[in-house]
Amino acid sequence: MTIPPGGSDDGGLAAGPARLVCARCGASAEAAQLTWTCSVEHGTRRHFCATCARENLRSIEGRLDSDWW
C-alpha cells in the first residue's frame, strides 16, 4: 500500500477529536477522558461520565444494561 506524500494511513480517522456525550446525564467532554466508562449495549457503544459511572459502578460491573439502572 502506498501512502501519498503528506498524507496519512489513518483510514480517515484523524479528522480531529470526537466529542463524548454521557448516555445517562448528557454531560460532554473531549475524547480520551480516562475517567469515563465505555459500554457496548445491543451493538451500540455508549459512554458514561465519571459521576454516572461512579454512581452505578455495581450495575456496570454486573453487566446490567443501562436501562436497568
Q: Would you kindly provide a written description of the structure presented here, covering whatever features stand out?
A:
The chain has 69 residues and is of the alpha+beta class. It has one domain. Helices cover 16% and strands 23% of the residues. It has helices spanning 50-55, 57-61, and strands at 19-21, 28-30, 37-41, 44-48. The strands form two sheets. Strands 1-2 form a two-stranded antiparallel sheet. Strands 3-4 form a two-stranded antiparallel ribbon. A hairpin with a 6-residue loop joins β1 and β2 (28-30). The radius of gyration is 16 Å and the shape is globular. This is Small CPxCG-related zinc finger protein. It comes from Streptomyces viridochromogenes (strain DSM 40736 / JCM 4977 / BCRC 1201 / Tue 494).
